[in-house]
Design brief:
Strand content: 25-35%
Distance between the termini: 65 Å
Helix content: 25-40%
Number of strands: 12
Number of helices: 6
Length: about 200
């Protein structure tokens, strides 16, 4: 009887390992609109959500997913297809998806370049969407309070140092047809200083 129980436990453990392996290419976890967390500050390869680049990740680890980049402005690199990253102290602080990344990379929520304004709003929510102009939409997340905030750009510009780094944002730009041309995940310091 002891042998039968051991066999059953081993079979169950093997089954769990197989199921875990099968889910490695699964879709990212569904996130509720009008909520935000550190998990939102990442992009994934469309074909394998385990291959991700996230805020705070080392450049070395980011380039394991993205490959070798071309240096742009200081601390900024572009990667094929259509991904730009800004590093601060060799850590990811800004990730931008341009049109060329469509179908290859998406945000943790599933947003990608080419997606409609309405589609992105459906993923991220309406309550905290800040639309200062017809072709732009932003979401701001205060990492200290762990809350989305509806702040004006003027209020955010009055912040400095660590307070700027503590505001994470999703910023989107749209073309005349309402399709996203750029989706950027970054902290407010990267947004204001490009570093």
């Amino acid at each position: 009887m002891n042998l039968k129980r051991t066999y059953t436990l081993l079979t169950a453990a093997l089954l769990l390992l197989v199921l875990a392996g099968c889910s490695s290419n699964a879709e990212p976890v569904t996130m509720e609109p009008d909520t935000f967390s550190q998990q939102d500050m990442a992009i994934y390869k469309a074909v394998n959500s385990k291959e991700r680049v996230s805020y705070g990740m080392s450049r070395k680890d980011a380039e394991k997913v993205l490959g070798t980049g071309n240096k742009g402005i200081p601390n900024s690199y572009t990667y094929d297809p259509g991904v730009s990253v800004i590093y601060r102290d060799d850590k990811v602080v800004s990730i931008a998806l341009r049109k060329e990344s469509q179908g290859v990379y998406r945000t943790a929520r599933g947003a990608e370049a080419g997606m409609s304004h309405a589609g992105i709003k459906e993923l991220y929510g309406e309550k905290y969407a800040i639309e200062n102009a017809e072709n732009y939409m932003d979401y701001y997340y205060d990492t200290e309070t762990r809350q989305l905030v509806k702040s004006s750009v003027q209020e955010l510009n009055s912040l400095s140092g660590e307070a700027l780094r503590g505001i994470h944002m999703v910023s989107t730009v749209y073309d005349e047809e309402g399709k996203a041309t750029i989706i950027i995940l970054m902290d407010r310091q990267a947004a204001t200083t490009m570093k």
